[in-house]
Amino acid sequence: MAVVLFLFxxxxxxxxxxxxxxxxxxxxREKITxxxxxRPKVESFDLPDIDFGGGTGCGELIFSVILWILFSVVLVFLxxxxxxxxWVVILLFTAILYWIYFRALRLVFKNSxxxxxxxxxxxxxxxxxxxxxxxxxxxxxxxxxxxK
Length: 148
Description:
Helix content: over 70%
Order of helices and strands: HHHHH
Keywords: Membrane, Transmembrane, Transmembrane helix
Strand content: under 5%
Radius of gyration: 28 Å
Structural class: mainly alpha
Number of strands: 0
Largest sheet: none
Transmembrane segments: 69-102, 123-147
């Protein structure tokens, strides 16, 4: 992985690669509002009071089946709402990672005007930035493992 990153940065600098932001916003207020508007509108509902007279019988069996069906419906709605929540979180993390890596690589490729056509300078910058990014990732892994 580190070798691929090194080659990508070095060859990008050598050939004068430039990055442009042409993807646009991954997560915007309109998309979040759109997800929020897609959820079903559920008004409050009341369960009827049923008195079975204290005995066991067919009525309690039917009542337990009805409660089981209602509980399943409520569980399906909860899973639907949690699904929307998790998709928004996944899109948010994707936007954050996109922004971090895009901004970082854009800073690297600002040096491409100095390195275009110069192999030694391209490899020098590539080695420096590859070392920085890989050591940053390994530093986080080490801290997570050490703090456990």
